[in-house]
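To: structure subgroup
Subject: Chain for Friday's discussion

All,

I'm putting the inputs and outputs inline so they're searchable in the archive.
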Amino acid sequence: MTPDDLRYDPYTDLYYDDSDGQSYLRSASNPLAPVFINVTDSVWKGWHQGIAYSIFWDAYSLRLPEKMVQQAYKASCTLLKRISPMAINHIRLSLEKLGQLALKLNFSQWQDFDDFTVYQWYEIAPYINRDGLIYLRLLYKQIQSDTGSIIMYERLKAIQEFKVGRSNPMAGVRGWDPESGALTKAEVKNLYQRIQEPGAVWNTRSHAARILIQAQLELGKRNLQFLMIRADGLLEERHGDDYEYLLRIPLVKAQAGTGELPHSITPELASDIKSFCQRPDVAELQRKYDRLIIWGDANGGDSLISMKSTLSSGDAKGIVQQYIKSLKIENSRGTKPYLHYTATRGRHTVGTHLALDGATIEEIAKTLEHDSTSSSKAYLDAVGEDIVIQKGKEGKLNEVYTELAGAFFKGHIADHLGEKRVMVPIDLEAETLPTVPLIVGSCGYGGPCPTHPFFHCYNGCPDFYAWREGDHAAAKAAVEAQAARWIGAASIPERSSMHAEFDAIRRGIEDVERRIAEGDQ
């Protein structure tokens, strides 16, 4: 269903199908593919990623006073115009739970949301899950805005300050969890090698999975963004004898804005996408649904897409996991024999590797399209806390640290700092944190650092200019603290390799200190 099929009434802000009298609310959570929620009667129904969500606006069913239901009904009309139709389910479940608790806790005096006190909020909180509390708070805030209630306004601050308990979804990032955290650079390299082997693609679905994996690890975007790329979304621009390839990727989160942004991709990924587009079944689906990355069901048909006009994130997750399982890529960390990969791990990998390469928290947030930098901080924490990745079963350490192992200091001693300054990583577990950045030198490399802008500097990088006035003793202390933490946690076969890695960096720092003391350049 599209806006062209419906008549818009600006007075009600609803859309109408004059052929059958149905009325619809337009959800703009995805501006490139707006969804219409049927609000014709007391049963609302909307689709999100191929799944139907509904709510029955009935006071008896919800076990709430009629006026409270009417207030929630009006507030939901406003909320669902800007958030996903999936929220219908959350709203229904939160109101049903509220009704059950009103009976259990004997809130018999309730008539409308004006009667919902802060004390009662704290009473119900232990019985409602995190999502339920979040959506109740959204409803409460919107109802206050709709009614202009002074008493609700006064309570709202206390309700908004209430801390909703949750598990930490970024814990796996901070700990380099082998199942949910970022892939190491060695693991990424191995994954790329395996998906490029002859026979690694055997049909359209496996080909689509390979493209999604490559795109996830290059760009760090969400599955839904890749699935919403239009059929003409691959761009090719010529610059003299060179070509630049771009993907026009939609901004799917309402907070990020609307429209599309071009993102540069490697020629290898562009070539694979072109090859994918040459498949006859893909070309047919692209013409029909105007999507670049698209595939049919197991029999090549379009039953997966026909009801919802697009594939869902769940569809993408399914084919990627099936593809990864079929390759049986050896897992060098953790307890499972084969590598576990998801789109979320791909995003974590991009964020963590950006941090390893010296990106700022703002740059990471922009790349991953985070609403704020708070989520992005986990990637900097991962770099600060987990500097060396454990050795794999084949004895291969992360190439960030092994490429120049044993080279020690190969840079220069400088009296002045350049623009690209190198700082000692902050140890977030230290008892006291530095009040100013500990600058130890600057980078003379012409582009972004291809490895790590601290540990690599002392261990063989010819472009590192160690500052004569830098606190190199603090740099050595930071390395020794990380060494003690990691070597203590590592299994016995790994300890000798870790000792060698950290010792190489420490000896590079000592070489800098010696040369400065001797007045070398």
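Points worth raising on Friday:
Residues 492-517 form the longest helix (26 residues).
Residues 184-340 form a domain with the hpI Integrase; Chain A fold (CATH 1.10.443.10).

D.
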